[in-house]
Amino acid sequence: MTGEISKAISGTAYQTYEKRLLKEVMAQPVPHHVAVIMDGNRRYATEFGLLVSEGHEKGKQKLEEMLEWCLELGIKALTVYAFSTENVGRDRAEVETLMHMFVKNFRSLGDDERVHKHRIRVRVLGQKDLLPDDVQEAITYAEERTKDYGAYSFNLAVGYGGREEIVHAIKRLAEAVKAGELKVDDITQDVVADYLYTSDLPDPDLILRTSGEERMSNFLLWQLAYSELYFSDVYWPGFRKIDFLRAVRSYQQRVRRYGK
Known about the structure:
This protein is of the alpha/beta class. Helices cover 49% and strands 14% of the residues. The chain has a six-stranded parallel β-sheet, with helices on both faces. 33% of the residues are buried.
């Protein structure tokens, strides 16, 4: 009984703090574009005695919560690092599990009432040709069903690598110059940005990474030039709303000088 009372008091205190923190964050301008490196699914599974696949499933559930939090705060663009080009080399069974999840999840996104209600455009950033055919088909389904939306943007980096993205842009620029469509002296930072996967997105205002790691792991290397970075010790499946609100509050407390 004592344990139940203690748990109830703890839960009430958490809810009270969350409400106060939410009110504080909502009173200030929120970032327009948040990007997330969702790290720690496997370590979370190991720590709690779960299968790796269960860790990834809980990570997927957390991403759905994150989308809700962004909608509540009015954050217009959310970009998440879901599967890197390096992840292809992981254990075959784990990769196959992730691919099955992608098929299911992209199909679900295409049919999600919340996505259509809020007019959320779903897009994948990355080398789609690296992915199995059924994953590519599911991605096309979600993208086609939401291509005319523009109120919010939900971007998933799958088969993505920051350096690969820049190389891809350089090749396209070189082809444009070779074809006489572009002069070398016309290449500026804005022109380069137009050739990236994120050409019609603003650069991230805030990039957060979970699990305690403090590196960018080949994520949005061009776009992060002036992004605010936030690192959390919590594994991604255990990332709570108050952890997210703290990250946004930290962003709000910083002065963005853009090198000036």
